[in-house]
Write a structure and sequence with these properties.
3-stranded antiparallel sheet; elongated; homotrimer; alpha+beta
Chain lengths: 139, 139, 139
């Protein structure tokens, strides 16, 4: 049983979804691990991870819109406002989605459904560099 | 350390919760793995996974009702409407719950709390066959 | 590859966040596992797990407030009311957050971001003893 660590860095330019499926798939394919578990963690609390449909871009548009309405950027709603009107909503949206995703590798292939893509869900307005820790354990 | 892959297929007949605890427990018990990790992934983005109370059926009724109110089936709210009024709400409900669950096995027993059951949470109105990937790693 | 099981018990005194980061970090450091995966499961369905910002306590205040407004303690909204006005909201809040978290260990160190803390999110009003199953697999 081997273990390999890797980081994917994503430079975000404001709120939205950043597809990192291809980067993760390519990295997994480059490793000499046939079967194993891939644990992906985002080391931040104002951006999150999500598995979503990769076919119609309107799905991501509607998804973002839903979260924006559910968790408005309105300083009157929050005590924590010193880091900007987008920071507290970012923490809440992170709590409602995922900090980490655990996936399976079979025959050196990341097991995802046909329509599943891996997305970083950025909740902050400004530019950020987000670190996605990848940890593969298998043989 | 061994690895075993398995699929549980669930034929859904519309929205609601489908308990697959017994199927997963039985499969785990049939494997020669005493201790390990079980990674369960649903390979779809319009149905999801959830661990919930298995005692009072009213809990599941209220849970479904909460999500239906929070994410209404109303085409006026969404751009992505071509796959039916239930499709975009299905993606949102999936984002709010889980695509995957990682559980521990100890002494060949799936570690769940007394009142915890494993459920497929189907968000679509029509019949679907849902694939739950099971991946056990342990010894 | 070794496997070690452990339980952290947290005595809660009503709703709110209980930071268990230090307990988990200390336990990991005491094990002779350099690299591995830590699977943490809460064996209950009316309290949950969350990774959140550990810097400004207002973040946790706002987070609790958000969930309390989204999922009101109002018996008229639910069928499942026999266990108290806080029980059904507790199940819903658990469904919206996490029953389990999978983390990576690298060089005997739990991989968390600088501002990430591990919290038990208690949703019940009364005192409870909550069991957090810890399962470490690595070498």
């Amino acid at each position: 049983m081997e273990q390999i660590f890797h980081e994917i860095k994503i430079k975000t330019k404001g709120q939205g979804f950043y597809d990192f499926t291809d980067q993760t798939v390519k990295w997994v394919n480059d490793q000499k691990i046939n079967n194993g578990i891939l644990n992906i963690n985002i080391l931040h609390t104002s951006a999150s991870l999500i598995i979503q449909e990769n076919a119609d871009p309107d799905v991501l548009y509607d998804l973002k819109n839903f979260f924006d309405k559910l968790v408005p950027m309105d300083n009157k709603l929050y005590k924590h406002t010193t880091e900007g009107k987008d920071d507290m909503p970012a923490h809440i949206k992170s709590a409602l989605t995922n900090n980490q995703i655990t996936l399976s590798i079979k025959d050196n292939k990341l097991m995802l459904g046909t329509w599943q893509g891996l997305y970083l869900f950025e909740h902050r307005l400004e530019k950020h560099t987000r670190i996605l820790s990848h940890h593969l354990i298998g043989n």
